[in-house]
Amino acid sequence: MAERKGLVTFKGNPITLIGNPVAIGQQAPDFKLTANDLSEVTLAKYRGKVILLSSVPSLDTPVCDMETKRFNDEAGKLGDSVAVLTVSMDLPFAQKRWCGATGAKNLVTLSDYKDRSFGNNYGLYIKELGLLARCVMAIDKKGTIQYIQLVPEIAKEPDYDATLKAIKALI
Fold it and tell me: Does residue 94 lie within any of the structural domains?
């Protein structure tokens, strides 16, 4: 597995990302994630849709909470041709609790706790924390990555406007 150090920081401290990094123009790698009902979900389930893919360290942190709430609100405006997925290492039970507590119904939360296939296949697994780096991507209907924003400081929010502009260009 590839290790990349210093691309992102956590509270100013460099951290190491493990896995195979993805690039714009590449087919989005598949993954096996766990849904809130413990069913297995792969990327293939969303083929034919534009995908806003958001990776966060943990829904139980303030920045991840704000980001995921914002993308849930935006998902309600984007229509049925867009799937908004938020991936974290949180257990599916915690994700389900978070969705219930916040009323998040427009996006799908998925857990990478079992296999780390998402973190490894997208190069976003944080070696020092055992969590995922903050990153947002736009994937077109053919499964090609068209936009990537790896947030340089894990404790900061992504650029929502740039992300949404990229998604809307694919609809």
Answer: yes
